[in-house]
Amino acid sequence: MSCHRQPLRGILNFMKIVIANDHGAVELKKRIAEWLAREGHSVTNLGVDVEERVDYPDQAEKAVQEFQKGGYDLGIVLCGTGIGISIAANKHKGIRCALIHDSFTALMAKQHNNANFLALGGRVSYQEPPETLLKVFLDAEFEGGRHSQRVAKLDALL
Ligand code: RB5
User: How far is CA 143 from the centre of its chain?
Assistant: First the structure.
């Protein structure tokens, strides 16, 4: 039994991810999207690829609408700080967008909050590579238990 667990887990770990960004995170979006693709994940890029000015609430909405079509495991939204676009994403029903800063917040975002969206900032100086934060999140699992009722209360807010 255990010999089958690892390959299956490996297959299940390939995720379908939608990503969107404003002009404040063009380079970080490209870096993250390329890394995710190299890791074997499927990435739908709805963000801007040149530094044309767009409004982050619109970019969040694009990612959320695509995510809500179904089949997606995760949304990643990026603006200059990650703040505006995370606020915007969280205005949509069913979205739990975590603005992560480091490995610890990335881990908690999955283990405790079961976040289905992550936000990062293209103008933020992270102490760890953004890829590390994403890997920590993607490798983690929701702990359930007492956290389930809290997440259910979050989902009931909208
Ligand atoms: C755009 O200049 C900037 O305000 C935006 O990317 C973001 O940082 C907002 O929270």
Answer: 18
What is the span of the domain harbouring residue 35? 8-156
Can you give the pTM of this predicted structure? Answer: 0.93
Centre of ligand 1 to C-alpha 57, Å, is: 10
**Alpha-carbon separation of residue 101 from 38, 107, 143 (angstroms):** 23, 10, 20
Annotation says 3 is catalytic: no
Atom of ligand 1 nearest to the CA of 25: 6
**C-alpha 59: how far from its chain's center?**
14
Domain count along the chain: 1
Summarize pLDDT for 21-67 with one digit per residue, the tens: 999 999 999 999 999 999 999 999 999 999 889 999 999 999 999 99
Residue 115 identity: A
